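Homework help board

Subject: predicted structure for assignment chain

Our instructor gave us this sequence and asked us to write out the predicted structure in token form, then describe one feature. I got the tokens but I'm not sure how to describe them. Can anyone check?
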Amino acid sequence: MNYFWMAAAVLLVLVGLVHSLLGERRIFAPHRAAGRVVPYAAGHRLGVQWVSWHLTALLGWVMAAALWERGSAGLPLSAADQHLGLELTLALLAGAAGLAGATAGRHLGWLGLAAAALLTLAGVTLG
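My token output:
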């Protein structure tokens, strides 16, 4: 078992849930209440933003599924697994750095992404 990858998977699921729930509550619900958001309306900026917002959570959950599947298999990591782990680590670090930089560290999501990246890297090197 690669408990580092399993922990990273759980963390990514939680980050995605918080991201989607808070986004709905703080960003999209006020717009809907004002009658400004029709999520699937063609060419509607807020509709595209809504889809993009939740797509980030979905992609995080796909990463989590891959990490959980390989981490819970109880098998030694193959070379392909190690490459996947490094690729996910880099993607998570890039997301964390971009979010931290874009918000001057005020958006706490960067901490969750950075922690998941470190757990993923630990799974490659120590797991």
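Reply (TA_rk): Your tokens look well-formed. For the description, you could write something like this. Residues 83 and 124 are 9 Å apart (CA to CA). That's the kind of observation they're looking for.
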